[in-house]
Design brief:
flat, 4% strand, mainly alpha
């Protein structure tokens, strides 16, 4: 039993009912025609499962952030090591060396365009027009009673757990 399961316990009965109605991987409701009675014990089990899932998601998000930070460190380290190796080889006047474990060579990258401040590039300028729909304006018009053909406001419901 992990820490989240201790904080948000779900009875065996609750687990059995939930697993009979909800696919554990997709979250899809399997049988909407024969729903169980919504007793308080089942509702508590569902809320605890939801809270546990939210907790697991937070742990995963934190771990992703940690791994992304670690990845960035290793990427910078690799670039630094490559720069140092290139510097040592250039200082020795060597452009290619077979080290047995790898063949290392200094090669030119494709040319990179640098546009300096004040460069006259007007002849190379092109205009791009992006057409977007102002969804907020449509919502405001619909909410005020104005008709917008082909558009409507839909009101959905959600579960709010605090």
């Amino acid at each position: 039993m992990n820490d989240l399961q201790k904080v948000y316990p779900v009875s065996n009965d609750g687990e059995r009912i939930i697993s009979a109605y909800i696919d554990p991987e997709t979250g899809e409701i399997l049988d909407q025609d024969d729903l169980p009675e919504g007793n308080e014990e089942l509702q508590k089990a569902l809320v605890n499962k939801i809270k546990m899932s939210s907790g697991v998601q937070k742990v995963i998000q934190d771990e992703i952030k940690n791994l992304q930070g670690l990845l960035a460190i290793h990427q910078r380290r690799e670039e630094g090591l490559k720069s140092f190796l290139r510097l040592i080889m250039a200082h020795a006047g060597v452009r290619k060396v077979d080290l047995g474990i790898a063949v290392v060579s200094i090669k030119k990258n494709p040319p990179r365009l640098v546009i300096e401040a004040g460069a006259n590039v007007e002849a190379y300028t092109k205009m791009t027009v992006v057409e977007t729909i102002d969804k907020n304006a449509i919502k405001l018009d619909l909410a005020s009673g104005k008709e917008v053909p082909g558009c409507k406001l839909e009101q959905a419901e959600r579960i709010d757990i605090k």
